[in-house]
Amino acid sequence: MASTYNNPEYPYRRSPDQNATEPVHHAVVIVGGGPAGLAAAMDLALHGVDSVVLDDNNTVSIGSRAICIAKRTLEICDRYGCAQPMIDKGVIWKHGRVYFGEEQIYEFDLLPEQHHKIPAFINLQQYYFEEYMVNRCMEIPQIDLRWLHKVSEVSTDANRTEIVVETQEGPYRLSCDYLLVADGANSPIRESLGLESKGQIFEDRFLIADIVMEADFPAERRFWFNAPFHPNQSTLLHKQADNVWRIDFQLGWDADPEEEKKIENIRPRVEAMLGKEQKWELEWASVYTFRCRKMDSYIHNRVIFMGDAAHQVSPFGARGANGALQGVENLCWKLAALLDGRAPTSLLFTYDTERQHGARENILHSTRATDFMTPKNSMTCVFRDAVLGLARDYPFARSLVNSGRLSVPCTYEETPLNTLDSDHFADRMRPGSACADAPVRSNKGDEWLLERLGNSFTVLFYGELAASAQQPLNDAVMNLAREGHRIGTLRVRPRGEEARNEHEVVDCEGVLAQRYDLQPGTTYLIRPDQHVCARWRKLAPDAVVQAVQRALGQHLAQEQVA
Amino acid sequence: MSTLITDPNFTDADAFYAALADIHRERSAAESAAINARLILLLANQVGNQQILEQALAIAGQIHLAE
Prior knowledge:
The complex is a heterodimer of chains A (562) and B (67). In chain A, 30% of the residues lie in helices and 28% in strands.
């Protein structure tokens, strides 16, 4: 097999915790050094929370696995300080072609909106994604990353969690306020606690063949329904970094996974697709089945599940790792506020409710894509083929073609943390929405709005404030900060003005006012995870304070830990 | 709320029914199934409104075929 990537090997290191006679206590211990676990460690560090990350292995992902990284994920990684190497290494794509049988039925452009720092999507092998996260984690002193430390026992009650960790030098024990578990779809810890992730198994198999080739195809996504080289099944071709191409062949439920993985069986499939003249080498192959499932609750006493351990989706639409990171950013600011004594336990339970909503949305989209690609009976097959047949000539039918609806962040519309709109606003940035980016100019130069949001609450307001509002706002924010809350203000000045201090930016392209429907005096309250939680046409400092308390769950009844 | 029209709305009901029968004349069952599917998709897009489509689907689903 060809190899464009050598997995780094991270050494086992003995921790001073292994010398202690009594279990050493940490506020947060994270299990799993994959995307969710590493993201949680970085997010917590930004909120001033130390963590220990335990991984039973000594390297990043074996094989390219998840390759489609969505914009929101990169925005989250940018907040952590590791997005740039991903964007530099990744393949940016926005063009796609859909084929049915012999014919191309249509092509599309994702037509990404202009004036965003981060591209709509990149393709990047999971090992690079994880490696760049590990590199960033190693720079952050609050993160204690321990490779080849495997959690073997977990016991948890309403007040704490204790674990046993196995190493090559023998076991040791730790205790923590919260154990964050991101140990993958088959989560051994979930199993050991007798908890279930429930849902649907799909009776289909897919072959991933990652091949290395010099090809002059552009970096576009090609999707075939019933291709002549692979009849009655779907095929996907996508470009990754290092001239690696992902080919995904639908095989059907009866395929033998061990046989299909063999190079002698892969070769004729790829040759049928690319022609015998095309030179290529296999880099990685895998046969997978998938399921869509989730836990009924992600929180069990002092154990919190994240990523695939908490919720799992089919790969179509890139909602696995992307959904995982949205969950992590939702959790970490809440956990930090709780550990600091700035929020009640009930805030933590909104991680569960908000991300149950996120998982349901992801599972719904993923299931619909799967049902389109693999019709469940003869009549849905007739409809699927009718859609594809019509799509060539009639654009309306293209909206029904579903080979995966690409991951966009979910809007927390129903959450009790929102203050509902009392004034009239455009829909786009309604409470619950993830903040849209926009170019801004500060007194240091050109920046992006999202670089100025996150990690704390932000009161963003537009234009001049009446003198009668400015001082009360400053006092209110000062009081909240004195109580330990992380909160700041950001004045947005209209295009043409100058930023006068570090708490101001100029809407240099006029895009911010448009995206946020800003008028003079319009005020937004933005959560530490860059989601809008309240907005008003006229700034009233008391309303801002109430909305902050609401976003911290102060009004929610204290719930017993489940 | 938008409501499905269940009173007569055809400009020429008899002509529509005759054309519907004609399009299936001398077609195999598979061809007829494909024609029906295309017709449903075209008409559904014309209706567009999801509430109305769901009302139509609900009525369409209420079938009691003789055994």
